[in-house]
Structure formats: C-alpha cells, structure tokens
Amino acid sequence: MHTNAQEVACTLSSTVIRENFTPVFEDIRERSTIAEKFIDRDLYRVYVATLWSNVVLSPEEVGLEEEDIEDLHDVVVQEIEETLGAGTTLQNIFQFISSKDGERAMNEARLTQSHKDLLLYFSSMILDPEGHKKYLDYIREQQDRG
Fold it and tell me: How many CB atoms lie within 10 A of CB 33?
C-alpha cells in the first residue's frame, strides 16, 4: 500500500511535465506556422484539442499518472496563452472545436471521422458534462435493452 508521501513522489511536477511536453508544443507550433512566424490559430486549436484528448484518454502512454492531469492542464493552458493570448483556455479550444469554424478547420486538416468524433466527444464532456453524462446513460440504457 502506498503512503501519501509515496503517492506524491510518483506524480510529476509541473516543471517536469513542461520539460517533457516542450517538444510536443514546439511540434504543434511548427505544424501550425504559416509564412514563417504566423500561427494558423484554427489548426493550432485542432492540434491542442487532439493532444489533450489523447493524453486524458491514456495518460500512462506518455508517462503520466491520473494525478498529473491537473498539472498538465495548467501547463497546456500556459502554452496556449503564450501562443493564442492571455485568457485562452482549454474550454475556449473545445468551444471552437464544436463550432462551424471548428468543423471547417477539422475538415481542412483532413481529420478522419473517428478523429473528429474523438474531439467532439471531448467537447461534449468539457462544455456540457451533465448533458454528456445523461447522453452516455441513455446510450448504455439502449444497449442494455438491445
């Protein structure tokens, strides 16, 4: 059994998380850059939403524990504020994904339908957690009847 001190020792600090994710953030910025220094904001948001969705689904695949997700959130928000401007949040990113402009950006990025579905699924969870839970309960209920 782990003690609290052992559990704390197993989680990563924000500094280590930032160091580990710096190459990922650099890649996202590079892939989103047009005309040398201009960021395609829409494409950048698609990439950040993809990063967040994949890490939250399988944090262990990138060396994180569930307890690290909160610190990662803070690191990601700091990154997107540095790139898109102060006050930009993950919620803003997912609001964009759920919009017509987000749909257009996902199409322009040539995302597969399953990739789009993943991002829209996370949008639903983040923007309307209660509605999302009701929807999942409804789906489970329908599956149990079938």
Answer: 14
Locate all alpha helices (DSSP H) within the chain, ordered by sequence: 4-10, 14-32, 41-57, 69-84, 90-97, 100-108, 113-127, 129-145
Count of C-beta atoms within a 10 Å radius of residue 76: 23
Q: Which residues contact 12 (CB under 8 A, 6 or more apart)?
A: 20, 63, 64, 65, 68, 71
For the segment 9-27, what is each residue's pLDDT rounded down to a tens digit? 446 778 888 888 999 999 9
Above 60 in pLDDT, residue 128?
yes
B/e letters for 50-75, b = 16+ CB within 10 Å, e = fewer, are: bbbbebbeebeeeebeeebbebbbeb
